[in-house]
Design a protein that fits this description.
Layout (H helix, E strand, L loop, with lengths): L7 E3 L23 H13 L4 E4 L14 H6 L9 H9 L5 E7 L5 H14 L4 E6 L10 H16 L1
Parallel strand pairs: 1-2, 2-3, 3-4
Helix pairs in contact: 1-3
Length: 160
């Protein structure tokens, strides 16, 4: 059998406040617009994309001037939406494309996520993938060894 290439697109930052300046932006649309995500799913399906990926970065960004002040003051890339409801909507307008969802062990309880992913697995007819991370924010949590222990416990729950 010939080797196959699988294609995925990362749409992690489609729902940020700065996209209104981009060419072809949906100016005048209600935010958040479920139609945007449904359109992304339809285009991905037509383009034979295998996976639509949503990364996440829970917590407040501290990448501007080394603090969270600007992110809080101007709402820059924060707060972000939980993409699980959008995936449910996107799955209704597609039949092939898969969906990758990210959750941080730092903030989400493993049993809640297991329940959520089980529901999404049924809603999407088995087209859900899961990306588990700790946290990329320097301020979250204050104890890195605690994060590693929690992540180990978290992933161990899935192996059970």
């Amino acid at each position: 059998m010939k080797a196959q290439m699988h294609l995925a697109i990362d749409v992690s930052w489609t729902q940020v406040e700065t996209t209104w300046r981009e060419p072809g932006a949906r100016v005048g649309r209600h935010y958040p617009d479920v139609g945007l995500f449904e359109d992304i799913a339809r285009v991905a399906e037509r383009g034979l994309i295998d996976l639509i990926f949503f990364g996440d970065s829970t917590g407040i960004p501290n990448t501007w001037k080394g603090s969270i002040d600007d992110a809080v003051r101007y709402g820059v890339a924060w707060p972000r939406l939980d993409m699980s409801p959008w995936i449910a909507a996107m799955s209704r307008v597609t039949s092939h494309v898969g969906f990758g969802l990210t959750y941080a062990t730092t903030f989400m309880h493993p049993f809640y996520v297991a329940r959520l992913l089980n529901s999404l697995d049924h809603l999407t007819n088995g087209r859900i993938a899961f990306n588990v991370i700790t946290s990329q924010r320097k301020a979250w949590p204050p104890c890195r060894p605690c994060t590693s222990r929690r992540a180990t416990t978290w992933v161990g729950t899935w192996a059970a």
